[in-house]
Design brief:
The protein is built from six helices and eight strands. The protein is of the alpha+beta class and 242 residues long. The strands form two sheets. Strands 2, 4, 5, 6, 7 and 8 form a six-stranded mixed sheet that branches. A two-stranded antiparallel sheet has the order 1-3. α4 packs across α6. The longest helix is centred in the first third of the chain and has 46 residues. It is globular. The termini are far apart.
Length: 242
């Protein structure tokens, strides 16, 4: 019995020693894991220690009300101004050289950026071109006065021919047969995309949209333009009024 008891005690002691050894090794393994993770984290911090990127800023803007209600000049109203001040619709650009009513080519400049045009050509009657310059200049000046810079408005559509209007109607439900764009009096300005000249000085897009709305409202109240807020195409549809 004494020998049997001694044997059992020996077995128990051996088991305890093995168990303690396993726990000690487990602690060492975990310590090595923690050390490795800290080394990995430190290594990545060093690799990603890049210059900070400026965040998107906000600028103060004036609330002029729901834009779809403020800018709701109907196509019929804009069509009347377009026929009064514009050209006769032309089938192609070559026809423009034989008209009594002149049109001018519109290029990107210090006030605005002409977007890639797929359904229109960059021409307007002189009065509309002057209005577009004024909108772009007023936007930049207003932005500067609010502490911002590095942005221009983006023009997305100008003169259209009846043929280009027909193509556009297949993809744009806002396009009509009696489009005022055919008279070279009308242009579209995006309110969802602005031309940014410095990615490190970005401004909240909603603030830019509302600032542009302020500029258009001021000119509209002066009787210089008619404006329709186009929700589906993300633009202000603007027609010169005098």
């Amino acid at each position: 019995m004494i020998k049997r008891a001694s044997f059992l005690i020996s077995i128990t002691l051996i088991s305890l020693l093995i168990s303690c050894g396993d726990k000690t090794e487990e602690k060492v393994d975990k310590a090595e894991e923690v050390q490795t993770e800290e080394q990995f984290t430190q290594s990545n911090v060093e690799k990603t220690n890049l210059p900070p990127v400026y965040g998107v800023r906000s600028i103060p803007v004036r609330n002029i009300g729901p834009l779809s209600q403020v800018f709701n000049d109907s196509n019929l109203l804009q069509l009347d101004a377009a026929r009064r001040l514009g050209i006769e619709p032309i089938s192609d650009l070559g026809s423009a050289y034989f008209m009594k009513r002149p049109i001018v080519k519109v290029n990107s400049n210090q006030y605005y950026k002409i977007d890639s045009l797929r359904h229109s050509i960059p021409y307007l009657v002189p009065e509309a071109a002057i209005l577009l310059d004024e909108i772009g200049k007023n936007f930049i000046d207003s932005l500067h006065n609010r502490g911002g810079d590095s942005y221009k408005i983006k023009v997305t559509s100008l003169l259209r021919t009846p043929e280009s209007v027909g193509r556009l109607r297949r993809v744009n439900i806002n396009a009509t047969d009696s489009s005022t764009h055919q008279y070279a009096t009308t242009f579209d300005i995006s309110y969802v995309n602005f031309y940014c000249m410095d990615e490190n000085r970005q401004i909240n897009q909603g603030d830019l949209k509302n600032l542009l709305a302020e500029v258009l409202q001021d000119l509209r109240q002066q009787g210089k333009c008619l404006v329709k807020f186009e929700r589906k195409t993300g633009c202000f549809h603007v027609t010169v009024n005098h």
